[in-house]
Structure formats: structure tokens, C-alpha cells
Predict the 3D structure of the following.
Amino acid sequence: MSTLQEYKGRTPAWCPGCGNFPILKTFKEAMVELGMEPHQFVIVSGIGQAGKFPHYLNCNTFNTLHGRTLPTAQAMKLANHDLHVFAVAGDGDCYGEGGNHFLHALRRNIGVKLFVHDNQIYGLTKGQGSPTSMEGMVTKNQPFGILSEQLNPVALAVALDCSFVARSFAGDTEHLKSMVKEAVRHNGFALVDILQPCVTFNKLNTFQWYRERAYHLSPDYNPGDRAQAFAKALEWGDRIPLGVIYRNDRQPFEEKLPMLKDGPLVKQPLHREKLEATLKAFY
Ligand SMILES: Cc1ncc(C[n+]2csc(CCOP(=O)(O)OP(=O)(O)O)c2C)c(N)n1
Ligand code: SF4
């Protein structure tokens, strides 16, 4: 059994009060409660404040380019589908820079678990508007307010039939822990969009702002009803639903790939002749 102490990594360089702290603490607790050993998973991240998340944990880590978190994570899962692969990204990294990869990951359904620290701002580069920033929000480089419509990643995920779509909040750690655990247990791609206050640059969507609006979906809510899930996903403003908004049992991509029938690629014997023939074809 792993312990919280075992997961202790470097001291975070985040601002005091940042919403990333409770996410880090909750993630470690979820791993311990799931009985997950550090060698059983890898965390892939890109660039940003959220991208630093795996540095603060004692586990396998891969830091990739900004916006390329998902392609890297998916490749790892296909190379070794016995491994739990977690992707951690900021809203800018995942929905902006990596937006195209996000769309196709939803469609493809490779069993990566994606945790987006959605602070509705570019944190590391000092507060430019991101795709999830609310229309009209004033930032240093959008002095007239953000003019583009806010992206709704949860509705987008339901529209593309993503197999697990949840939303949680960094200020509601018991709820967040249950969402992390459900995502890890899900067979297929999972998105957990985590509302994460950036106390330094986002003065609109504060802990208090979310607390006044966020509510838990009722126990009789059925996440299998896609039309209802889409209606729920569109709720944003005075009331913001938290919980598993949509779930289906689409077969993961890796279960359909004939090459993976004999087990993970990394454990299969290397056929030198075939490799050499392939290489020759390129030279
Ligand atoms: C290709 C590329 N474009 C831009 C940057 C500059 N850059 C670094 S972090 C960042 C924003 C990060 O914002 P987000 O992904 O929302 O994460 P946060 O810092 O808010 O957690 C940007 C634009 C970069 N490193 N690489
Ligand atoms: S800038 Fe925002 S997201 Fe980054 S560490 Fe500070 S509070 Fe957190």
C-alpha cells in the first residue's frame, strides 16, 4: 500500500492560496485510497502552472510541449496499456493551444484520464484571457473585455460522445476526490474539468464566486441520458453543476487495436527483421 508521504515531491512554486494546492493534496489522497502504487502510473503534462503539477509529486513524469499533453499521453497509453496514464493540463494548454488534440482524443477514446485545471486564464504567462475566460472579463491585454464567446469544454465533450465527462471544484475537495477516483476506475477516456481559482490573475472567478454557484448533481441524475447531459452541460452562470455529467460504455480504442491483443507493445518481442525492412523502406 502506498502512503501520502511516499508521494511527497518538491515544494510547489505556486502563489499562496492558488487553487492548484488543494488539487495536488486531493490527488495524492485519491491515489492512496485507490491503492495505487507510484510505479503504476505516469503523469504527462505540458507547460503552465498546471503543467508543473507532476513536479510536486513523487511519480513517473513526462513534461511535453505546450498543448501537446494529450498526443503524448495517448502514445504512452498505446505503447503500454497496462500503465495508468494521467494527463494534467491548464485550460490554455488543453482547450486553446491543444484544442485540436482535445477534439480527437474525445472521439478516439484511448483510456487516458485527463484532469484540466480550469482557472479560466493563462496563469504562467501572467493573466491573458484563455478559451474558457468569460466574455467581457477585463484582463491586462484585453482592456475592453474579452470579446470572444466562452468555450464550454463539458458541452463539447458531451457533443463528441466522450465516454466520461465530469466537473469538479478545487474548493470542494471531497467531491473532487470522488471524481478523480471515478475517472481512474472508468474504462476509456475520461475528462475531469476542475474549476481552479487563480487568485493572482482571475479576480472574477474566485473561490467565493464558485461557492455561490456550484452545486452537486442530485443522486437520481442519470449520466447515461445524453440529451439530459447536454442540457446540464449548458448550465453556467448563476448555477454550475458538479458531478459526472455524462458517461457511456464505448469500447476504448486500445481494446479494438489488433496489435495489442497479445498484451502491451512494450512487453512484446521485437521483430528485428521487420524493423529493418521498415527502416530500409525509408532510406
Ligand atoms: C508553443 C508555445 N506557445 C506559448 C507558450 C507560452 N506559454 C507558456 S505557459 C502559457 C499559458 C499557460 O496557461 P494554461 O495552459 O491555462 O495554464 P496555467 O498556467 O493557467 O495553469 C503560455 C501561453 C509556450 N510555452 N509554448
Ligand atoms: S498565477 Fe494563478 S494559477 Fe499560477 S500559481 Fe499563481 S494563483 Fe496559481
Q: What stands out?
A: The chain has a mean pLDDT of 97.
